[in-house]
Amino acid sequence: MSWAKKTIGELCLIEKGKIGIQKATPGEFPLVVTAEERLSHNEYHFEGHAVVIPLVSSTGHGHRSLKRIHFQSGKFAVGNILCVVMPNDENILRADYLYRFLDLNREKELVGRMRGMANVTLPMKEIAQIEIPVPPVEAQIDFVEQYSTLEEKSNDLGVELTHQLDLVKQLRQAFLREAMQGKLVPQDPNDEPASVLLEKIKAEKVLRQAQGTLKKQKPMPTITEEEIPFEIPDNWVWCRLGELCNTITKGSSPKWQGVNYVDTYEKGILFITSKNVDSFKIDLSDSSYVEAKFNEIEPRSMLKKGDLLTNIVGASIGRTALFDLDLVANINQAVCILRIEHEYVDKPYLLNLMNSEFVINLMLEMQFAPGRANLSMSNLANFPILLPPLSEQQRIVAKLDELMQYCDELEMSIKESQQQNELLLQQVLREALEPEEKEVEKV
């Protein structure tokens, strides 16, 4: 028997949902909304098997996207920003087959038909015009079963690949842990001991304070035995983070008037928040550049190239990045500057150390107030940190660069496998929906 091609409008009832999601009264019937999880309502408006499609963009203003569509059976209600597509006769077109077809072709057939510049919507008349191949019901049932089987196998492989990515993450942390404990590279007895470095840092600070180029700092308390979690090599020392840094200060939100957001940094000042401080790097994919029309901006918020930036608020506490950009930039209160203006600490070494799970977990334990995920400047300045000899710091960084590149390659290979897995599933399923052209007749 030949396959037919018909439009959804010819074969289905297409009707908008009947209840405002915020006005729903919790009850016994599923309420289909744009989110994956169902809510509930005390009345049902539809009964049977149906595909439920959002009529608004998933990502809001100006963007065309649909994260998901839904299959729903039984008695149910639907929010009024979605529509129900219900086959008129399931002996001709099954709802589960239609759902799989539309889900597989969501970008082309649904997202591609969305309209509008600001408020992006999917008109129901566009859904009605979608053409679908309609094989015999037996073939539809077979396709749905095949889809479920392949999807289950693909999901199993996806779980394994995700597990492998997690193992790579653990491997990165294992390398950092070895580095922290002085086990990653051999010690050299000819290296200048870290205790001498620390004295040089202190002496340079005293000199700069006398010259008026550095604000006087409060004395740091001596590291106690209770603060030392493990043994370190003889020529290393435990010290306070504040002893290594010339400045530790958090940012502030500038006061401005008439700010215009622009597309390129040449016209403005980069404004960095905690979401831009990714591990090891500054992520500018979601940043704001503002014209220099500030009424007031504190100098302590302005960055210098080479600053380390550490998040001190929220779930990303401790995540640290190197500001290595030739840009004028400032930070807000959720980010702290660790500024080192001497040659006795290798910044990439400290960057790796700050992004280790050991340091981050300790910082999470040092929350400024119960129930509030943030750190004070005092907490940060007094944080215990490891200082190896300068030459060993540099050897550690060189070895970590090599090992992290290996991890990057592993991660890239796994991600490519994930993409291939998804593409293979789609290819196999599309081939199942594309019989020989001579077998397809337009009805």
- Unreliable stretches (pLDDT < 50, length at least 5) are 257-266, 436-443
Strand order of the largest sheet: 2-7-5-6-3-4
CATH architecture classification of the largest domain: Alpha-Beta Complex
The total domain count is 3
Query: So what's the overall shape?
Result: elongated
Predict the CATH topology of the largest domain: Adenine-n6-DNA-methyltransferase TaqI, Chain A, domain 2
Structural class: alpha+beta
Span between termini: 14 Å
Strand content: 15-25%
CATH class of the largest domain: Alpha Beta
Largest β sheet strand count, sense and barrel closure: 6 strands, mixed
Averaged pLDDT? 85
Q: How many DSSP H or I helices? A: 11
- The tally of beta strands, per DSSP, is 20
Which percent bin holds the helix content? 25-40%
Question: How much is the radius of gyration in Å?
Answer: 30 Å
